[in-house]
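Hi C.,

You asked whether I'd gotten around to modeling the 499-residue construct. I have! Everything is below, sequence then structure, no commentary in between.
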Amino acid sequence: MTLMVAGAYVLLCLWLRNLPFQDAANHLARATVMADALFDHGTRFGQWFTVTLSATPYVLGDLVLAVLVKLTGPSIAGPLWNTLVFAALPVSLAYFARSLGLSWLAASMAFLLGCLDGSDWYFLMGYQSFQLAVALSVVVAGNMIRQCDDPSSQRFVAIIVMIICGYLVHLTTVLFVGTMAGVIALAHTAPLGRRVRATGLPLVLCAVLLVSNMQQPALASGPPGHHWELVWKGSRVLAPWLRFNDVSNLLLIAAFSGVALLGLWNWKGVARDPRCWLLAASAGAFFVMWSALPPDLGSVSYVDVRALEPMSCCFLLLVLLPIDLGPLRVKVVAWVASACIAAANLCVLGIDLFPADARIGMYRELLRVVPEGATVFPVSAARPEKKIWRFLHAGAWATTDRFAMTPYLFSGSINSPMEYFRYVRLPQVPSEFWPIRPHPPALDCDSIAQQFQYVAMIDKRDLGCANFVSVATSADGSMSILRRVDRETGAGVEPSASR
């Protein structure tokens, strides 16, 4: 049954070929450019982008995705990478459960409930590197526990390698691993010397890597003061699990609460188990981290709520511990309930994501009128759903599918953490959020016309620029492609071929 549920999730992720996850298309477009730079000498994108590899966060995930793009093409690489990202967290939770000495049945429940945890708001936002960082942190924590129980030089080397790899995936790896190392050093029951040897060097390594990155431009400035308001910050505690409509959210949360209640009868017995205190201390440490972190830091958004993801992982295993110590009938009921929750969550994901995937597919079809090597200005006025802007980065498909230059790819040029990826000449454009502001400023049509040959619009009927004329429109009129015209002749201006 567990394998059937896992297979169904894999099929869902692979089926969503248009990546209806907020940032996912942007990451795939960047990887497509990097694949061109690393393997084809910048033949298609060299005039617009530069790639200078460095040992910084995000680079490892981008390199793996770029290799997949080169081997399979972006249309396969994107869904395949997204599938691997999704699967990483449920698998890591099952591994962590076994590291704690839980049964295989409990590990199976950890996987099934991990499918719910792994498809939360972070996944739908397309925070792929962050999702991998959480999974790597959980695996490293499991290995540090194993190292305390049964020291091994090979395992210790693996811990160090995973920390370095995790750092190259996302900076939060060292923050989360460092926190878990501190908790394990204090709360594990192994002899003190063994705990120090298992967690000391990982903790120092995490501290060094974290401090060395605090001066990067993306983190250079602090958050606005109003973000510290207690009520505003407290309202975000449940945000990662409020994904779709209120009914489905409440039903899934209620179902998970039912599983948690199955273990309450054995709570007095499990309270004497040192693993209980280890997990409770870990969850508490991440809650304190959430309380202390600012909501935004520099150009990086949603900083504090990221600590809630590892906190939920610890809480999930804390729920499973008393169930695993109970009688077989309780474990079987909990396992069946976990499978039903995973299946229900799969249905909710499909109902929500398939229409969005189909709509982005229509958008990609419209983009076929854009010649390869053009310059495209994407405009999305689509509104968010539960703070998920599904179509915000849909314009990045012009880069992936048509090898076009688009201005909103995450890069060091706009103070994103990807310092190794930059524009040769940063386009002068308004914020990508300008179309949805209550009173959007007037667009500088002449500037846009000087820089771009095409405009790709979603949910905006009129650009308000005489410099562009429509060349393709969707059947419902919600999406259109505009082409720049010559003011003197009124003829469309065709793009020159990219070098």
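If it helps when you're writing up: Residues 77 and 298 are 31 Å apart (CA to CA).

Thanks,
B.
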